[in-house]
Amino acid sequence: MSLIHPLTIGSVSLSNNLVLAPMAGITDSPFRVLCLKDGAGLVCAEMVSAHALHYGNAKSGRMLRVNPEEHPVSMQIFGSDEQTIREAACQAQAAGADIIDLNAGCPVKKINKAGAGCVLMKDEPKLARLLTAAVKSVQIPVTLKTRIALNHHEFLGARLAKLAEDCGAAAITLHARAAVDVHSGEPDVEALAKACVAVKIPVIGNGGVTSASYAKEFLAAGCAGVMIGRGAIGNPFIFRDIIDELEGRPVPAHTPQKRLEIYSKLIEENVAYYGERIGINRSRKTAGYWINGFPNASAVRGEFVRLDTIEEVRKLFSTVFEV
Fold this sequence. Notes:
Elements: E1 7-9, E2 12-14, E3 18-20, H1 29-37, E4 42-44, E5 48-49, H2 50-54, H3 58-62, E6 73-78, H4 82-95, E7 99-103, H5 109-113, H6 124-137, E8 142-149, H7 157-166, E9 171-178, H8 189-196, E10 203-206, H9 212-220, E11 225-228, H10 238-246, H11 256-274, H12 276-284, H13 287-290, H14 297-304, H15 310-319
Parallel strand pairs: 3-4, 3-11, 4-6, 5-6, 6-7, 7-8, 8-9, 9-10, 10-11
Antiparallel strand pairs: 1-2
Helix pairs in contact: 1-11, 4-6, 7-8, 9-10, 11-12, 11-15
């Protein structure tokens, strides 16, 4: 049986079991659409503050917008009290999300100081209340994203997977590193395997997946799916490449010229979505991932980050590969 296969999360059917991870400032609507076109079975939006939604923050409200081309999509929310979590889940459902995901794994200090993210791993009764509140407030599936541990002394993955299942979550995503590791170090695949056998709901493995070999390792350990985050930045074709490699097909080369063509289209989509100033500014954040692999890449990046209009960007990129 192929390791790549359709996956069902609650009432939502995915074409395959490769998932784009939620990443702040990265997985906005234009990038989600791009990843779906390049083979992702599910895309997850950058996390949205339930507290901000409660107080009518316009920017947070816009983050819930769903493009008709980006289904299936999971909307991730974070918060520390049941009421705002219920409200946020309902708003995300109304905006068109197919799945609601509760974040209980983010190690960012600002999030943790607000009582959200990975600090919820320290208070499992509270985490259970928040997750249950989300599950009971909507008619679409709710999932949990967390980590295998807070530190290297106590493995929590299997216990948190069971908590999620008992609260009615349709799946759990486990980042295979402890919170103290943030994004560094090798993922603990053995810890993921223990969580997989502890529950009947799908366990999606996350953390450090940058190639088909890592995806294969996660899936062979029992994960129902694989979530890919940083490996997809500047590389949305990773989903199709993993599918092709694991199914025995040749993986196409992605030349710097082809990558720049796709990046140009993404910038155009960002400008259409956000307006020129914000669209170009957001595009700058990932320039280093896209503009690389050719002799004058550093100079092109340096010039690109100083540009303010889409016409200037078009002119720059049109001359990059001229002989």
